[in-house]
Automatic annotation (TrEMBL), chain A:
The chain crosses the membrane at residues 6-24, 31-52, 58-78, 90-115, 144-165. The keyword Transmembrane applies. The lineage of its organism: Bacteria, Pseudomonadati, Pseudomonadota, Alphaproteobacteria, Acetobacterales. It catalyses: a quinone + NADH + 5 H(+)(in) = a quinol + NAD(+) + 4 H(+)(out). It comes from Belnapia mucosa. This is NADH-quinone oxidoreductase subunit J. Residues 203-229 are annotated as: Disordered. It is found in: Cell membrane. The keyword Cell membrane applies. GO terms for molecular function: oxidoreductase activity. Its main location: membrane. It comes from the Bacteria. PANTHER family: NADH-UBIQUINONE OXIDOREDUCTASE CHAIN 6. It holds the Pfam family Oxidored_q3.
From TrEMBL, chain B:
This is NADH-quinone oxidoreductase subunit H. One of its GO terms (molecular function) is oxidoreductase activity. It comes from Belnapia mucosa. InterPro entries: NADH_UbQ_OxRdtase_su1/FPO, NADH_UbQ_OxRdtase_su1_CS. It catalyses: a quinone + NADH + 5 H(+)(in) = a quinol + NAD(+) + 4 H(+)(out). The lineage of its organism: Bacteria, Pseudomonadati, Pseudomonadota, Alphaproteobacteria, Acetobacterales.
Length: 229, 336
């Protein structure tokens, strides 16, 4: 009973926030609604008993992808008036494309035939003795490990490609060599100061008081101390 | 009575009682952590610190809280009001809900879930939203720059935190936090995984925006960073959230590396002390190191911070992860 109520609550919020993603006037609000949608999807995963997927959804999409999204959207100075310009002109084209896609989806889903065991598998996706994470791990890292590695390799290539494409080598850039800087000797003097000793015992003196200073002027002049008060 | 406790309302009542039993001490700890920080910093700088309000300044946190409450709440005219007010609440709430899975003693977690460590990782990665939203909703350059810095910093250091967590999980074989602690009954993980312990602690400093990584609030360049426009209770929520996060990260370090509720050696005088006291003592030790670091190190420059995260910690933790996996596999110590 409670699970069903929670399901309808989360599903309703999910759909409402998904609608708000599209209709919100401010793009930052759109991204925030997208995050809300991710959250409710994670909650639906939890209700379905897939706690590992729920947490992964939050970590990957909410914790990393949406942060970068929000980051970019906030920094771009988007002109809302220009974005909405020509909406009526393009609306019919958009509607036609949307309609075609919807029809195609209907055709695909309508001709879907379920396997005989599908219903049983759906109700008991994993055997009871292993946790969610272990069951997924068995599938991904044991049964399909080579496919998984290939997918990772493709992502790595995509990542390197993005870096190569956007990386600029500018002449005259002065880079910091931290190792050389740290190994440099003689430029920094570290001195062990006994705590509570005060500066007088170390021979470091404040500039003398004006009265006390007068007789010593000739004596101190040779050291070149400046900045009295 | 048993019938009532098993009913939905009974379960709810028990959960509320457990939550209060955990969060009230946490909040008191947060209040006294602010005092402890000022006292420890003062001692390290040969000063006295707060010593006027109450004996040894012990009532200072309450005086500060009252002062915060009496101040006027100011909302900048160009600010996005809803998000401006929501951001500090979000930050504080996230710092509180993470405690749901923390096992204070064997079997003393409010929610002893299978994916506890992932839950904590998820919650700690959400903390950045409070900061970004606060920076953006303030409609101020300084706040926004602080928020951007913080977003980049937290996302960067999360990567190495993730690898450190995976390394620990390899040695445990479970995502449950109580199992992580139980796996350390004989030897705490900071001994075999010492470099990862150091990396995790430094990343925790960066994740909580503490010195020497407190660039999001670098007062010399950004006035006060992302919360520069906040006043009164909303400022206090940021402040409390930051300190609650420090305690949380210390608790996580304790669970992952310092053996949670276990005493250092299982001999008589140590085993008399209950587990949650050991847990609290270890957290207190780590918090002291947090403050000690703040008193000792100068603030990092921003590019150096990014370099440390991406070019030093990330490759190192990745290599150590592979190494750990290889050693566990070759020696056959891999948990079933």
């Amino acid at each position: 009973m409670i699970a069903a109520l929670a399901f309808y609550l989360f599903a309703a919020i999910l759909i409402a926030s998904a609608v708000m993603v599209v209709t919100a006037r401010n793009p930052v609000h759109s991204v925030l609604f997208l995050i809300l949608a991710f959250f409710n999807a994670a909650a639906l995963f939890l209700i379905a008993g897939a706690e590992f997927l729920a947490m992964t959804l939050v970590i990957v999409y909410v914790g990393a992808v949406a942060v970068l999204f929000l980051f970019v959207v906030m920094m771009l100075d988007i002109d809302f008036a220009r974005l909405r310009e020509g909406f009526q002109r393009y609306a019919p084209v958009g509607a036609v494309i949307g309609g075609i896609l919807f029809l195609e989806l209907l055709l695909v889903v309508g001709s879907w035939s379920f396997a005989d065991q599908a219903e049983d598998l759906r109700l008991a996706p994993i055997t009871g003795d292993v946790t969610n994470a272990q069951a997924l791990g068995r599938v991904i890292y044991t049964d399909y490990v080579y496919l998984f590695q290939t997918a990772g390799l493709i992502l790595l290539v995509a990542m390197i490609g993005a870096i190569v494409l956007t990386h600029r080598q500018r002449p005259g850039t002065r880079r910091q060599n931290i190792a050389a800087q740290v190994n440099r000797s003689g430029s920094v003097l570290l001195e062990k100061v006994p705590s509570g000793a005060g500066i007088a015992t170390l021979g470091i003196r404040r500039p003398p008081e004006p009265e006390a200073e007068k007789p010593k002027v000739t004596h101190e002049a040779g050291h070149g101390h400046g900045g009295h008060h | 009575m048993d019938g009532f406790l098993a009913s939905p309302i009974g379960i709810l009542a028990i959960t509320v009682a457990q939550t209060l039993a955990l969060l009230v001490p946490v909040l008191i700890a947060v209040a006294y952590l602010t005092l402890a920080e000022r006292k420890v910093l003062a001692a390290m700088q040969l000063r006295r610190g707060p010593n006027v309000v109450g004996p040894f300044g012990l009532l200072q946190p309450f005086a500060d809280a009252l002062k915060m409450l009496m101040k006027e709440t100011i909302i900048p005219s160009g600010a996005n009001r809803v998000l401006f007010i929501l951001a500090p609440m979000l930050l504080f709430m996230l710092a509180m809900i993470a405690w749901a899975v923390i096992p204070v003693q064997d079997g003393w977690a409010i929610a002893d879930i299978n994916v506890g460590i992932l839950y904590l990782f998820a919650v700690s990665s959400l903390g950045v939203y409070g900061i970004i939203i606060a920076g953006w909703a303030s409609n101020s350059k300084y706040a926004f720059l602080g928020a951007l810095r913080s977003a980049a910093q937290m996302v960067s250091y999360e990567v190495s935190i993730g690898f450190v967590i995976v390394t620990v999980l390899l040695c445990v074989g479970s995502l449950n936090l109580s199992d992580v602690v139980r796996a350390q009954e004989r030897v705490w993980f900071f001994i075999p995984l010492f470099p990862m312990f150091i990396i995790f602690f430094i990343s925790a400093l960066a994740e909580t925006n503490r010195a020497p990584f407190d660039l999001p609030e670098g007062e010399s360049e950004l006035v006060a960073g992302f919360f520069v426009e906040y006043s009164s209770m909303s400022f206090a929520l940021f402040f409390l959230g930051e300190y609650a996060n420090m305690i949380l990260m210390s608790a996580l370090t304790t669970i992952l590396f310092l053996g949670g509720w276990y005493p250092p050696v299982h001999v008589v005088p140590f085993t008399w002390i209950p587990g949650f006291v050991w847990f609290a003592l270890k957290i207190a030790l780590l918090l002291f190191v947090f403050i000690w670091v703040r008193a000792t190190f100068p603030r990092y420059r921003y590019d150096q911070l990014m370099r440390l995260g991406w070019k030093v910690f990330l490759p190192f933790s990745l290599v150590w992860l592979v190494l750990t996996a290889a050693v566990l596999k070759l020696t056959g110590w891999l948990p079933a």
